[in-house]
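Catalogue entry: protein
Contents: sequence, fold tokens
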Amino acid sequence: MTLRPRFRRVAVLAAAALTLGVLGNAVGLGSAAVQADTLHQAKNHLTELQKRIRARRQKLARLERQMNRTAKRIDHTQSALAEIQHQLDRVAVRLADTRSQIAKLQAEMDKRIRAAYIQGPGTPIELVLTAPTYNALVERLSMLDRMTQSDAELADQIRIVQQQLQERTAQLTALQAQRTALLHQLNDRRQKLQSSYDEQHKLLSYLAQQRAIVMQQITALQPFAVCPVMGPRAFSDDFGAPRTAGGYHPHAGNDILAPMGARIVAPFDGTATVGHDTLGGLTVNVTGANGYVYNAHLSKIGKTGKVRAGDVVGYVGNSGDARGGPTHDHFEWHPNQIPAHPHKSPYGFTKVGDAIDPYPFLMQAC
């Protein structure tokens, strides 16, 4: 069966959207008879959305760079604050030492004042004039000289220590002022970063909304964002072909022939779950917003749980009733809602159970 021109156009459209990373859970319920003008309008809409998304992503990238610069400034400010705090601690220790020295010197000065008070109101002249002998006079003069020198040294020490106290108090005040300024700066930068967070959140929300719009557009055209089997593959429209394994039944999917170990991927966003049955062997389902696909005869399982379109969920094999036969992925499409005019296979089937023929959609995606 040749690829119809309208399917080619849809394939180009889906590939372009996937390149921009906006395709997700694309489940289409439209038939192969989509009109060319509808496709053209949808393509124009998608192109415009893609331009807007690119612009928002560029703005988001600029915002992230700005936030990184702000975070770096915050780190530098915090480092400066830590250094100032260290200096404050050191100055505080020195201030405590200085105050202790002043207290000791003051105590010594008080001690001398008390001693002078106890000795009475005598003056140095009286001490000299009342000396009984020459030797006593010399001793008293020497004592007075030592007392004068000691008092002068003590007074000098007090002045020096008091000056150090003033300088260190001023240094402490200056450091505290710097710390206060840095704290204000840090707070401003944190508020700026929070504003950037808020703006980034709005941008991400906008991108999510635009992605949902694109997904709706793609959903109307093509259910599979990517081909479910990567690499070399071949398939035909064998939906409804007679099968006898496990009893006669019509084939409910398309067999995608591929080498052993070829990657089987999620065709849309959804949840991948593992299964096993006699006919299908090792299987994996990918369930999205509008239905699920069934992959059978796998050789091993890939990613399970939440998956995005293109995630590897398994690998081609020939397990189950295909053992010994050609390796392939038995692929079924089970939409939540059967389209009004589903494609009819060469075998005359439009659906088998709740599965419909995936062939026209595989032709678009693969």
Remarks:
- Residues 1-35 have pLDDT under 50 and may be disordered.
